[in-house]
Amino acid sequence: MRVSHRFSRAVRSRVYAVMRNRLGMAAPMLTEDRRVLEQVIFGHFCCDSRIKTVLFVGCDSYTAHYQRRYFAKHDYWTLDPDPRVRRFGAKQHVAARAQELGQRFPGGFFDLIMCNGVYGWGLDSAVDCDTAFSQFHDCLADGGYLLIGWNDLPGRDPAPLAQVRSLSRFEQYSLPALGNWRYLTDTPHRHTYCCYRKIDDGCSDRRS
Questions:
Q1: Model-level pTM?
Q2: pLDDT over threshold 50, residue 207
Q3: Which of 48, 126, 129, 189 is deepest in the core (most CB within 10 A)?
């Protein structure tokens, strides 16, 4: 019964989002994984005065309000290869793939990169994942953070994260608000958040 209730709520939320999307309107997603992302994870990082420049990878109608509501005081950017979702991105939006990030931004540019709903939905091979996460590492400042949100389901994990070589360049970061570096939300699609931090030799104390 509980699973059925969660599934029904997810369906209603998606229908709501589709209807508002067709009207060209923002449509916050009313699901538990988005509650965790927006209220807990965003809340944590927005309170960190050291985080100035933020990149959110992956746009849709339910991300259109992120800059206005959460990141109005940050140097906020969005990235998505689909030109149709430009209207749901930040004022500073780049139409490109995650694997091309280093071609658009200099090294150490971002303090925080969030890649939610892209691993398994666009990053669909081990090679693509390794390239994209390597680009994230290069474009993050020393001590910067990487958040990956994904569905822990068969067919949606193109390369087990533990086997993606470029992620070994990061350390796992336990998000205080969640009590762990990895957090499984109470959702039918098992949406999971994994948080990492970039540490470079000689620069590891910047954000400690």
A1: 0.84
A2: no
A3: 129
Buried b (16+ CB within 10 A) or exposed e, 47-57: eeeebebbbbb
Q: Which residues pair with 119 in a beta bridge?
A: 123
Helices (H), the chain: 2-22, 32-35, 42-46, 66-69, 101-104, 126-139
Phi-psi region of 202 (alpha: psi -120 to 50; beta: other; left: phi over 0): left
Q: Where are the domains of the chain?
A: 2-198
For 8, list phi and psi in degrees, rounded to 5. Answer: -65, -40
What is the C-alpha separation between 11 and 106, in angstroms, rounded? Answer: 40
The predicted-structure confidence for 6-35, as pLDDT tens digits, reads as follows: 545 555 555 555 555 555 555 678 899 999
- Among 58, 195, 47, 48, smallest CA distance to 117 is for 58
CATH 3.30.70.100 fits 2-198, yes or no: no
Q: Whose structure tokens read 């969640």?
A: 178
Eight-class DSSP state of 166: G
Does residue 51 have a pLDDT over 90? yes
DSSP state of 141: E
* Residue 198 near residue 158, CB atoms below 8 Å: no
Query: Does pLDDT of 5 surpass 80?
Result: no
For the CA atoms of 63, 192, 141, 197, what is the dihedral angle to 10 degrees?
Answer: 160
What six digits make up the tokens of 180?
């762990």
Exposure letters 107-133 (e unless 16+ CB within 10 A, then b): ebbbbbbbbbbbbbebbeeeebbbbbb
Whether the CB-CB separation of 41 and 48 falls below 8 Å is answered with no
